[in-house]
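F.,

This is the one I mentioned.
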């Protein structure tokens, strides 16, 4: 694609000569207009957004220097080469002051001008490529941070508000956009998943990583903002931002057919590249960020309770999905409260929920009794998966329980298994162990603030799954992993700004940000000031900052 040029000169024959003599095609440029004064040129610039301006200085109505002054005041992105028949140093000095790329005297030496244009445009193209690369790196950093935040939102670990200090710059889109939500799940309790259950933890992690990559690469083909988040072993949540950047409460309708099409494409891609068959559950409306946790739980519950889905790989789920009885909904609530009690190590709460299981079974009428065994099977399966995810089971315990669940047990056997699951979860001194793990994690995180630190890395360091680590971290420190890391980095940056002569760029790298621009955005949202102003306002009188010394 050619760049655009505008020629500005009050002498028409000079403009015509410049159009004809300069080899514009060879330079990758196209003359899109000529103007006789600064006013006409300004209108053309606004209409055409040119890359280059060849501009005379002395013209009627508005001269060249006044035009350049206006261009710079409006921060228009155009490079300028000045042409003048007056050899006056005052003009040259003013042109340089306004950032003009070059200054040439008339009569114009066309060969020399061609070389100057080639140099200026080459510099412009290089600068553009560099800017795109910086934006790509920054976008990736924002994307990674955004996915970490979205995970905390899905798990209901964070209170989301539009003025949250962590929502800075492009990340603020998380709170004011709406999303389509789809949950992709591998039926780990199915007969076909027996091989998967025998894999080592390392093999499962590699498999989960491969699925994530396939989902991400497939989503990138859509060209819309999205996130792929592994919510637990064998389960992934895919969020896609509403087309057109829809705001919360937008009247744009939810296109079930379109969402189902991209969900089917994702299922096909996973089957093609990883050779595994997943199922998908979709929430049938766009949801805001504050509604994501409820939508995720609704779809997850719907997929677990859809015991009669047959071979249908994609289903839509709401809180009142047809086919789900009140008894099934009640059992799901018991399962979630039971898991919550196990995670807290609360034996009293666990016993209360086990009694509620028995009471609920006694209330089930004859019509629903036929669904009792599959309902209990999914109850036990959900508790087992959650306990595995949160590290409450040793590997040998997990293997033993899987083997039992694979057999065709009756209702009494399933209830006994649920009790056995609960006993296994309470067997370890969870509270003391959790406290030790979190203290160890905190020390590790504080030592590694200078580099990109992920939840997965910190969790692995203390031998926990990422999801259980995130839960324990929030319970222990009252904030999410990313909130804690960012707060520690900002506090360290404040100390370095005031107590050391290091530049802002050096400090950014020292606290874990490779991009100064991204560091500045986070710092401003956290403190209300940019780093340089923060430093200058707290330095002793007469002291000079590094940036000021360099200027």
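My design for it:
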């Amino acid at each position: 694609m050619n760049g655009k040029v505008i020629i500005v000169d009050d002498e028409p024959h000079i403009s015509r000569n410049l159009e004809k003599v300069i080899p514009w095609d060879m330079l990758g440029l196209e003359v899109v207009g000529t103007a006789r004064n600064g006013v006409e040129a300004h209108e053309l610039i606004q209409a055409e957004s040119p890359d280059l301006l060849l501009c005379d200085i002395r013209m009627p109505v508005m001269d060249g220097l006044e035009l350049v002054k206006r261009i710079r005041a409006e921060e228009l992105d155009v490079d300028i080469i000045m042409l003048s028949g007056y050899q006056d140093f005052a003009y040259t000095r003013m042109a340089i002051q306004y950032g003009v790329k070059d200054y040439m005297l008339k009569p114009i030496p066309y060969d020399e001008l061609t070389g100057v244009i080639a140099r200026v445009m080459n510099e412009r193209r290089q600068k553009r490529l560099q800017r795109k690369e910086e934006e790509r790196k920054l976008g990736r950093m924002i994307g990674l941070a955004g996915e970490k935040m979205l995970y905390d939102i899905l798990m209901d670990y964070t209170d989301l508000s539009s003025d949250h200090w962590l929502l800075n710059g492009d990340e603020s889109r998380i709170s004011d956009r709406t999303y389509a939500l789809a949950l992709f799940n591998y039926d780990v309790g199915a007969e076909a998943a027996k091989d998967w259950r025998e894999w080592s933890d390392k093999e499962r992690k590699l498999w989960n990583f491969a699925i994530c990559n396939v989902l991400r690469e497939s989503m990138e083909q859509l060209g819309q903002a999205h996130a792929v988040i592994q919510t637990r072993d064998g389960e992934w949540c895919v969020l896609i931002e509403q087309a057109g950047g829809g705001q919360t409460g937008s009247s744009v309708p939810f296109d079930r057919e379109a969402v189902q099409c991209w969900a089917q494409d994702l299922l096909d891609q996973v089957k093609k590249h990883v050779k595994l068959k997943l199922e998908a559950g979709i929430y049938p409306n766009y949801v805001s960020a504050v509604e994501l946790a409820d939508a995720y739980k609704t779809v997850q519950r719907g997929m677990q309770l859809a015991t009669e889905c047959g071979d249908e790989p994609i289903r839509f789920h709401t809180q009142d999905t047809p086919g789900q009885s009140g008894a099934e909904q009640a059992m799901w609530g018991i399962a979630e409260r039971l898991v919550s009690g196990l995670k807290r190590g609360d034996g009293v709460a666990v016993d209360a929920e086990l009694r509620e299981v028995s009471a609920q079974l006694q209330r089930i009428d004859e019509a629903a009794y036929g669904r009792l065994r599959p309902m209990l099977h999914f109850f036990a399966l959900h508790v087992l998966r959650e306990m595995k995810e949160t590290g409450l089971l040793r590997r040998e315990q997990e293997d033993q329980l899987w083997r039992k669940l694979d057999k065709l047990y009756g209702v009494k056997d399933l209830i006994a298994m649920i009790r056995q699951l609960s006993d296994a979860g309470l067997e370890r001194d969870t509270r003391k162990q959790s406290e030790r793990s979190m203290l160890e994690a905190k020390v590790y995180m504080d030592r590694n603030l200078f580099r990109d630190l992920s939840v997965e890395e910190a969790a692995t360091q203390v031998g926990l799954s990422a999801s259980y680590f995130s839960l324990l971290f929030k319970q222990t420190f009252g904030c999410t992993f990313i909130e804690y890391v960012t707060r520690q980095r900002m506090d360290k940056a404040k100390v370095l700004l005031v107590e050391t002569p290091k530049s802002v760029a050096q400090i950014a790298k020292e606290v874990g940000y490779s991009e100064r621009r991204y560091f500045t955005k986070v710092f401003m949202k956290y403190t209300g000031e940019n780093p340089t102003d923060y430093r200058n306002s707290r330095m002793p009188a007469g002291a000079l900052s590094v940036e000021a010394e360099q200027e």
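The CA atoms of residues 497 and 534 lie 8 Å apart.

Talk soon.
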